[in-house]
Specification:
Elements: H1 2-28, E1 68-72, E2 77-80, E3 89-93, E4 98-104, E5 110-115, E6 118-126, E7 130-132
Antiparallel strand pairs: 1-4, 1-7, 2-3, 4-5, 5-6
Length: about 150
């Protein structure tokens, strides 16, 4: 029995020492030193290249149509700012006056002419008052006159 007590005592002491030994190892063992983590930096956005479809090729610009010569049929024919009888009168032309016709309205009842007194200006005259050297439907449609105010 003495032997069993010694054995138990021996096992107990080994057990105690081994428990204390792990504590001692934990105390004296080198530990990893915490290092400061670098802060995340903002990464620049990645440029994405998006392939665009090729630009459509436009036909080369065409020269504006040449004015068609015409002659006024009646005296005191009114040239107006727009193709209607309520529009402002820009000029008056007499029978036999030569005009250059640049276009027509969609209804073919008015023609646009170059103002004789202002080569950069345009005016409208009733188609029935002009003898044209070409059929009226061969003239291009003229854009509406810009308004000087809203």
């Amino acid at each position: 029995m003495k032997r069993s007590k010694i054995l138990v005592l021996l096992l107990t002491s080994v057990l105690i020492v081994s428990c204390q030994l792990t504590d001692l190892v934990a105390v004296f063992a080198p530990t990893a030193t915490p290092t400061a983590r670098p802060r995340p930096t903002a990464t620049p956005p990645v440029a994405r290249v998006i392939a665009s479809p090729p630009a459509p090729t436009l036909p080369p610009p065409t020269a504006p149509p040449q004015p068609v010569p015409g002659t006024i049929r009646e005296n005191s024919s009114r040239v107006r700012a727009e193709p209607n009888t309520n529009a402002a009168i820009l000029d008056r032309l007499n029978k036999g006056d030569a005009v250059q016709v640049t276009g027509r309205n969609a209804a073919n009842d008015w023609v646009q002419i170059i103002l004789p007194k202002d080569p950069n200006g345009r005016g409208w005259i009733a188609a029935t008052l002009v003898n044209l050297n070409a059929p009226i439907d061969t003239l291009p449609l003229a854009p509406p006159a810009p308004r000087p105010y809203p």
